[in-house]
């Protein structure tokens, strides 16, 4: 008797251990999910870092090319500045030379004027000579035969005077045309000199602009060098950060593996503790689980009787009872399903589940579970219509017609015993769990295992 009491006490303690294992495993599961979520974010971050590193490499190459281009531009502008300076100097010299031509042209104009004066004087002499020839011819005519030789000379003088007069007139015309052309040339030279002076001003401005451009290119080259330096430093920092992320990712994966090992060990310990709890519950001693075992057995018997009566009366068929063609309800989240048994379970069995759950304040709910974890119905408080877009609320308050499966439920479904007492984690969605203790009673119809009747309660 003492040994049986010790066994019962050990079973209860095992149940407490299973409860602690369940809660710890739930905590580790939450940690594992967080680590995996962070690891997924870390993977995304590493992808982004690889892209950033690639972009950084491209930026560094571009910065180096920019610096090289700036250096080349600086050299080209420096060389061009010298060439342009020489060219501008030649332009200035040309302007000065053109300016000097103006003086020479004006001197040439003075010479033309002097020649014109001489030509005028020659014309006057030719006129006087012609007049003299005329007078000599008249005097020769008066002298008769004795002055015939003088008459010939007078005629020749007159002819030469006429030729000299014609030549002087022709020279005067040509000198007038030359004077006109020279004055036009001088005017053109003066205009070019004015333009040359304006060009000189533009040349001075161009020199200033070239100097400014050279200064800007020099500054650009200096900034390009600074960019290259900063890019090199940033590239090194990116490499360090990438390596750090890789190390962190490796550490996160190792942590996930260790958490997985710890969870597996806790699951094993939880199974062992639950096995001891279940063994103690079958030991015949009264424990704090005994009232709930009795409630579960009584409730399962009533559920079994109601279903058997419906089968016998034809209100329910075996095909409908064992229907596993789960038809998803459109828009449900989490997914809910309908089978041939769902409507009967809601109508005939839910009132029984409500009444059974109300028999003890510690009972959180009674439900039915088929061999695949499907809950055709639940208590009314857990069978409310789903709210669109409120998954967490639906997970807790619309648990009917959903499919749930965990290790302890699977063990109870597959086990061969009159009942099973387990501590397990009730999934409330989004990583939320609640530690419960449940009594599972198998339901068999027509010699065929349908599933379980469950009474979940808090300890």
TrEMBL record:
InterPro entries: Chemotax_Me-accpt_rcpt (IPR004090), MCPsignal_dom (IPR004089)
Signal sequence residues: none
Record bears the keyword Nucleus: no
Keyword Metal-binding included in the entry's annotation: no
Pfam families with a match to the protein in the record: MCPsignal
Keywords per UniProt: Transducer
Family, similarity comment: Belongs to the methyl-accepting chemotaxis (MCP) protein family.
Protein name, entry field: Methyl-accepting chemotaxis protein
Species for this entry: Sphingobium soli
């Amino acid at each position: 008797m003492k040994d049986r009491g010790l066994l019962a006490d050990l079973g209860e303690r095992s149940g407490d251990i299973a409860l602690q294992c369940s809660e710890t495993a739930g905590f580790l599961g939450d940690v594992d999910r967080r680590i995996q979520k962070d690891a997924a974010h870390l993977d995304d971050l590493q992808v982004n870092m690889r892209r950033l590193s690639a972009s950084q490499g491209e930026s560094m190459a571009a910065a180096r090319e920019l610096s090289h281009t700036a250096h080349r531009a600086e050299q080209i502008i420096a060389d061009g500045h010298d060439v342009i300076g020489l060219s501008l100097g030649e332009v200035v010299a040309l302007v000065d030379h053109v300016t000097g031509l103006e003086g020479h042209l004006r001197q040439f104009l003075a010479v033309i004027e002097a020649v014109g004066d001489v030509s005028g004087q020659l014309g006057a002499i030719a006129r006087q000579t012609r007049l003299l020839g005329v007078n000599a011819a008249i005097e020769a005519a008066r002298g008769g035969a004795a002055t015939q030789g003088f008459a010939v000379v007078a005629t020749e003088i007159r002819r030469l005077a006429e030729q000299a007069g014609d030549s002087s007139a022709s020279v005067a015309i040509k000198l007038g045309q030359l004077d006109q052309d020279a004055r036009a040339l001088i005017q053109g030279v003066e205009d070019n000199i004015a333009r040359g002076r304006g060009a000189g001003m533009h040349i001075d401005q161009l020199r200033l602009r070239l100097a400014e451009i050279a200064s800007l290119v020099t500054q650009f080259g200096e900034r390009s060098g600074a960019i290259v330096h900063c890019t090199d430093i940033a590239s090194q920092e990116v490499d360090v950060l990438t390596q750090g992320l890789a190390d962190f990712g490796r550490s996160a994966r190792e942590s996930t593996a260790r958490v997985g090992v710890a969870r597996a060990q806790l699951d094993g310990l939880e199974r062992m503790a639950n096995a001891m709890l279940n063994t103690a519950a079958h030991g015949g001693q009264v424990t704090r689980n005994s009232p709930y075992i009795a409630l579960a057995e009584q409730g399962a018997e009533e559920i079994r009787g109601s279903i058997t009566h419906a089968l016998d009366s034809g209100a329910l068929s075996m095909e409908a009872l064992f229907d596993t063609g789960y038809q998803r309800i459109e828009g449900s989240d989490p997914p809910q399903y309908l089978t041939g048994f769902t409507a009967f379970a809601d109508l005939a069995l839910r009132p029984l589940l409500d009444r059974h759950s109300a028999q003890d304040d510690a009972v959180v709910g009674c439900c039915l579970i088929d061999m695949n974890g499907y809950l055709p119905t639940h208590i009314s408080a857990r069978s409310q219509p789903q709210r669109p877009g409120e998954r967490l609320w639906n997970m807790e308050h619309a648990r009917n017609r959903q499919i749930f499966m965990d290790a302890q439920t699977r063990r109870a479904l597959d086990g061969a015993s009159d009942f099973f007492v387990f501590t397990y984690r009730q999934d409330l969605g989004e990583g939320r769990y609640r530690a419960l203790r449940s009594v599972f009673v198998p339901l068999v119809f027509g010699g065929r295992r349908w599933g379980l009747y469950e009474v979940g309660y808090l300890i």
